[in-house]
Every structure is written in C-alpha cells, then in structure tokens.
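Help!! Second protein's tokens look totally different from the first
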Amino acid sequence: MDKMTNKEYQKYAEKKIPKPTYFKNILYAFIVGGLICVLGQILRNILFKYGLDEKTVTSATSILLVFLGSFLTGLGFYDKLGKIGGAGAAIPITGFANSIVSPAMEFKREGFIFGVAARMFSIAGPVLVYGVSSSIIVGILYLLLSKGR
C-alpha cells in the first residue's frame, strides 16, 4: 500500500471538498430576507389602512412578525426556510423569534418548565444581555458628549 505524503493528501482532499456556491447562497439570502421584509411592509400598510398611528403600527408590526416567526418555527417551517435562505432568514426580526423558540422546541420532551421555559432564552439570552448593556453604555456616552452643546 502506498502512503501519501501530507502534500499529496492535501491535494486529494481539496479535490473531494465540494466548492461553495457563494452566488447562489447570496441570491437566496437576498430573496428570503427581502420577502420577509416585504411581508413586514404589507403588514404595516394593512395596519395603517385601519387608521392606526405610526407608533402603534410599528409596535404591532414587530409583534406580528415575532409571532409569525415563532409560529412557523413551532410548525417546523422556519427551519426549512433557514436552510434555503441562510442569513436572509436569520437577520430579520423573525430570525430572532426563531432563535428563541428553536431551543425550546428541542427540549419540549423534558416538560414545559425544565425543557421549554429553561431553554427558551439559551441562545437569545446573551444577545439580549449584551444588546441592553451596550445600549446603556451608548446612551451614557451620548448624554456625556452632548452635554457641552
């Protein structure tokens, strides 16, 4: 049996590794993320049609998108969308809802308290902690730097 050198093995492995399809991935992410944003805009337009003000429409749109992301994750559809759309499905607010619900769904067999509730914020928790912390720091810096004006 012939033994390969490290260089020969490296060349052999490079030939076997599938080439990434960057353009296709970028295109699908753009389409999926764009469609989610279009859905958000449609919801906004519908809510404005009912005569709601800007603040109420903004809140209601966010709430509806989080609900839809959570609901579709619970049905198993959002995971399929994420496989197709990649970052396009992860970036919008629906992706945030998916990141909260996915771990909870994974541990639902352990019960609602020790499974769902305990795991719900395992991924989103650190994001929330650092997001709130950084917003406080930025707010304090803004307050200090704008005092002299």
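Here's the second one for comparison:
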Amino acid sequence: MTLTPAPFYFDDFRAGQLFLSQGRTITETDLASFAAWSWDTNPVHTDAVAAAAGRFGRPIAHGLLGMSIAMGLASRIGVFEACSIALLGVDDWRFLRPVLVGDTLRCRVEILAVRRTSAGDAGVLDRAFAVLNQRDEVVQEGRIGLMVSVSPARPEVGSAG
C-alpha cells in the first residue's frame, strides 16, 4: 500500500517551516539536453577540452539548469502540488558554486512568510530556496514567491458561502 500525503493548502503553511527534497545527480546528458533546448552552447558547459583549460577544469552545469532542477525537486516534496496557482517571481537568485557532472543536488525550501491575497481567495508564500550539493554546500539560493489556493474546506474571507 502506498500512502499519499494529504494535500497542503495555504492554511497549512507557516513561516519557519522547512522542507528538504530528495537528491538528484547531474549527468552529462542533463548538460547536453539543457544546451540543446535552451540554445546555450557556451563551451564552459559543452566543450570538455575548452572547459579543462578554464577556471573549473571541466564543464559546469548551466546556472539556469540548477534553478530548473531546484524547481523540480521542490515539486517532488509534495506539499506545493495540489495548491499551486502561479509562480510570482524569482528574487535575489545567486549562483554561489559551480554545479558539476556527478554532483547530487537537493533543494531546501523555507517558508519565510504567508499572507492572504487582497481578494482573500488565495494566499502567497514567500519561500527561500537553497540548492545543496552532496557536501551540503549551498550552490545556489534565492527567493521564489508562489500563489497558492486556500483549502476548499476553508473558503475565502468574507464569502457569502
């Protein structure tokens, strides 16, 4: 029997909550696929010979690949899936360390603040993301706001319901 976690809604989140994702190992295929669909074929990502002569001695992952994987890892946590309405923005994102083929990334999400929208029918989560490698070093970090639905059992404030 597989247990499915109860869906989270706006009312289930509190400032200070921490969530940690499972890990995902970065492969050469990840770099090649991202380069193909993004058209970012900078040699630092795609040319092993050129990258060997560069600062990191081998190809590094695209910064936005790391951010994209962080979003996917956050969704795998399972608490944002049922309630997500819209991504509101990415703020203060920083690329602190290179992500290399063979690195295993995890995503830590902290709820910084929660507030209802002015209409009262949804909420906003201010979330801090930290992308961690296998040594628990933060390789990327930033804030990503998310609009979420309120529980159907707890309708909007002021509803005639």
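Reply: Different proteins will give different token patterns, so don't panic. The mean pLDDT is 92.
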